[in-house]
Amino acid sequence: MKVSPIKIAVFIFLLAFISLQNLFAQAEEDNETESKSHFGLGVSLFNLSDYTYDIDFAPSNSIYFVIELGDKLRLEPSFGMVLTENLKQYSLGMGLFGKKPISKFNILYGFRFGIRINQSTAFVNSGGFFGGGSTKTVFNNVMIFAPTIGGEYYFIKNFSIGSEVQIRGIKSENEWITHTNSSVLLRFYF
């Protein structure tokens, strides 16, 4: 009976995962008396909306600066950017969350708001098929407001994985757009 390499890889992954669960649990038990850190960094692994049409063209890898304000409140400033030959996009945001700790899990609820600054350059053809043209720079800034709910699980004291869902409102120059957004985040605490 021949076993496929994929089945072997899955078996090894599951065995390693189960083995490491005891290691993580031991680390948490040893540090129960210590308080959790008050500052951390987080990254959005990916936004689930990246696999569909993302109306606000969000930088998919924002960096979150986690600031714990006591046991029940969290502040998360964020920064993201996309720089190409024809596009410069910067995203500055702030998240304010209430926090409900349950063992090694936190439920987070609150909102994110921010501004996205977009500068794009496009070629404008003004001379027909063989004619010349010029470039045109367009600025388009949008405001974002997003009620958010999420959670995070601490594998060990200084590392968590989380997820959040949002109903995001976007105000551009000409319109108001509402859509859902979700993401998976890793956070490291110092």
List the helices and strands and how they pair.
Layout: H1 5-30, E1 39-47, E2 63-68, E3 73-83, E4 87-102, E5 105-125, E6 133-156, E7 159-171, E8 176-189
Antiparallel strand pairs: 1-2, 1-8, 2-3, 3-4, 4-5, 5-6, 6-7, 7-8
- Which consecutive residue ranges, at least 5 long each, have pLDDT under 50? 20-34, 51-56
| Alpha-beta classification | mainly beta
Percentage beta strand: over 45%
Q: Look at the structure and give the mean pLDDT.
A: 77
CA(first)-CA(last) distance: 50 Å
Can you count the beta strands?
8
CATH fold call of the largest domain: Porin
> What topology, given as strand order, has the largest sheet?
1-2-3-4-5-6-7-8
Task: Determine Rg (CA atoms, Å).
Answer: 22 Å
**CATH classification class of the largest domain:** Mainly Beta
Total DSSP helices: 1
Largest sheet: 8 strands, antiparallel, barrel
Report the CATH architecture of the largest domain: Beta Barrel
Keywords:
1 helix, mainly beta, 8 strands, Porin, single chain, 2 domains, eight-stranded antiparallel β-barrel, 190 residues
Structure description:
This protein folds into 2 domains: 34 residues; 155 residues, Porin, CATH 2.40.160.20. The chain is built from 1 helix and 8 strands. Strand 4 and strand 5 form a beta hairpin. The longest helix has 26 residues.
Compact description:
This protein has 190 residues and is mainly beta.
